[in-house]
Amino acid sequence: MDTIVAKPLADLLAVTYGPAAVLPPLLQPISGIDEAYIYGSWAARNANQAGSVPRDVDVLIVGSADEDKLYDAARSAERILGREVNISRISSASWADDTDNPFLTSLRSKPRYPLIQKRITT
Predict the structure, then answer these.
(1) In which order are the strands placed within the sheet that holds 84-90?
(2) pLDDT tens-place string over residues 32-62
């Protein structure tokens, strides 16, 4: 459908029912997440970069969260979204300091959609 309302309607649905709405409530209860971002094709489309409709959602978790809990959250998100959710986890130290990792260098240079901002602990 290529009408004047197609893009705004698709954008509204993505924000209301898409990964940006579904993932935060699933991730926030998991301890050890310092930051979380959607990256890849979904983040690129959200940043208005041209391309096809994303078939999956790539999520970066920064911190020490339990991988089993992250896996469970990803499967729950998949059931809601109807698409694959891939979670990658890295340590906070690597995210802050690793400048030699090609994956992180690429990730930092491309759009990311923040799901959980850096948590301040007291």
Answers:
(1) 84-90, 56-63, 33-39, 113-116
(2) 999 999 999 999 998 989 988 889 999 999 9
User: pLDDT tens, 75-121?
Assistant: 999 998 889 999 999 999 999 988 888 999 999 999 999 999 875 55
Q: Which two tokens stand for residue 71?
A: 């896996």
Q: Which domains does the chain have, with CATH numbers?
A: 6-116 (3.30.460.10)
Let me know the angle formed at the C-alpha of 26 by 67 and 18, rounded to the nearest 5 degrees: 120
- Whether residue 34 contacts residue 119, with contact meaning beta carbons closer than 8 Å, is answered with yes
pTM of the model: 0.84
Query: Hey, is 23 helix, strand or coil?
Result: helix
